[in-house]
Amino acid sequence: MSRPHRQLLVIDADISIREDVVAHLKKNDFDVHQFSSGKEALLWLDANRPDAILADLFVSDMDGLQVLEALRKKLPQIPVIVTSDSGAVKDVVDVLHLGAADYLVKPIANIEVLLHAIERALERSELILQNQVYRQELEQANSELTEYIRLLERDQKAGRSVQRKLLPEAPVSFGDFNVDFQLIPSLYLSGDFIDFGCISKRYLAFYLVDVSGHGAASAFVTVWLKQLVHHFFREENAFRSEESFEKDAAKILSLVNMEVINSGVGCHMTCFVGVIDIYSKEMRYVFGGHLPFPILITDKGCEYLTGKGKPVGIFPDASWQVYSTTLPDTFSLVVFSDGILEVLPGKELIEKEQHLLEVVANNTQDIGSLTQAFAIDSMSSVPDDIAILKIQAEIS
Fold first, then answer.
1. Could you tell me if 47 and 89 are in contact, meaning their C-beta atoms sit under 8 angstroms apart?
2. 298: Cβ–Cβ under 8 A, 6 or more apart, which residues?
3. What whole-number distance in Å separates Cα of residue 122 and Cα of residue 79?
4. DSSP secondary-structure letter at 343?
5. Above 70 in pLDDT, residue 187?
6. Is residue 269 within 8 Å of 259, Cβ to Cβ?
7. According to the model, what pLDDT value does residue 217 have?
8. b or e along 269-297 (b: 16 or more beta carbons within 10 Å of the residue's beta carbon)?
9. Long-range CB contacts (within 8 A, 24+) of 231-235
10. Of all residues in the chain, what percent are helix, strand and coil, respectively (each to 5)?
């Protein structure tokens, strides 16, 4: 099937053959231009662009290979079909080497052979043009994607800087109580967050939260959470009385729970909230679906704190129990986010928890000794955000 309105250029010094071919091509809806001279044809091509060229290898005023080479140089995207009285292998190799789309031996007894060769050359030419368009579109898309990633990385670095500035300074001491932490994000931004402070020079309040998901959305929730907790502390005078000390750890979780649910942010969180009366060394704490359990190291050994509680931001009617314990004069309390479980050996949770307990028991100096013991420092990246909070006291 011929293509209507396609322009062909026929170059052939033999006028009878040329006109015969031109007549057949016109009958098949091609617009045909013809020349007997290679030089005249090249001159015509300075101002015209046919869809394909049919050129005889032997024209009167130029060597056929020179004509072909000039055509390919001038219009490399236009297919050239070479015809010749000779079927010499060397000629075939030469013209194909110079980029000819096809080689037909004259006389062409069956016009369908010529039409088929032209259609095939045109289809191949269209495919090449389409591929060039696709390649240009792909290069443009890649360029836009690269720029988008660059902007995203820039924004995430800025977000990381903001998030770091919102973290409390550490290490810090409140009387005999020393507090330190490490936050190792799996991406630029972390869904884990730690905050603490001493209220009325008596109540050391702290929390470690792990927001579901990763990246910017989780990190923004941690920023919002910090503002929410600070607002609660101001408005409710939290942990400024013994009554508040007994109840407000759970009250904070109830407030955050409803705020998260009503906000529709699509995240939930697990957390551990605690408050220590540094005068009496009494501690109150609540679990918001937090794993692994915090580890308490005393002269008597190393053990997990126990308790239970639902995650925050899922159940509208959830409430949380306040647990209590009396801390000895010398102790360390270590709280991990669940990202630590991803870097521990073992398949079952109970194996990982046992390994975690043993490593903490043997590395009681500081947080740096813990990150070294877990080889976190040597990891190029971690599979999940890891947060470590450590509170120590050595009261003589």
1. no
2. 327, 328, 330, 331
3. 7
4. G
5. yes
6. no
7. 77
8. bbbbbbbbbbeebbbbbbbbbbbbbbbbb
9. 233/199
10. 40, 25, 30
CA distance 337 to 170: 18
**pTM for this predicted structure:** 0.69
Q: Could you give the CA distance from residue 203 to residue 197 in angstroms, rounded to a whole number?
A: 8
Q: Whole-angstrom Cα distance, residue 269 to residue 192?
A: 9
The answer to whether residues 160 and 214 touch, using CB atoms and an 8 Å cutoff, is no
Residue 52 tokens, joined: 């394909």
Kindly state the helix (H) or strand (E) to which residue 73 belongs, with its residue range.
Answer: helix 64-74
Cα–Cα distance, 332 to 78 (Å, whole number): 79
Phi-psi region at 119: left, alpha or beta (left = phi > 0; alpha = psi -120 to 50): alpha
Q: Are 171 and 179 in contact (CB under 8 A)?
A: yes
How far apart CA 9 and CA 12 sit, in angstroms, is 10
Residue 44, classified by CB atoms within 10 Å of its CB into exposed (0-12), middle (13-18) or buried (19+), is middle
Asked if omega into 50 is within 30° of 0 (cis), the reply is no
Q: Contact at 8 Å (CB) between 355 and 315? A: no
Instruction: In whole angstroms, give the CA distance from residue 240 to residue 281.
Output: 16
Q: Are strands 52-56 and 30-35 parallel, antiparallel or unpaired?
A: unpaired
- With cut-offs at 50, 70 and 90, classify the pLDDT of residue 60: confident
DSSP state for residue 342 in the 8-state scheme: G
**CA 184 from centre of chain:** 19
User: How many Å apart are CA 272 and CA 251, to the nearest integer?
Assistant: 13
Of residues 72, 217, 171, 244, the one with CA closest to residue 392: 171
Matching residue, tokens 């004259």: 106
Q: How far apart are CA 18 and CA 12, in angstroms?
A: 6
Q: Under the phi-then-psi rule, with left for phi > 0, alpha for psi from -120 to 50, and beta for the rest, what region is 275?
A: beta
In whole angstroms, give the CA distance from residue 310 to residue 302.
Answer: 25
- Burial classification of residue 120, based on how many CB atoms lie within 10 Å of its CB (0-12 exposed, 13-18 middle, 19 or more buried): middle
Residues above pLDDT 90, as percent of the chain: 69
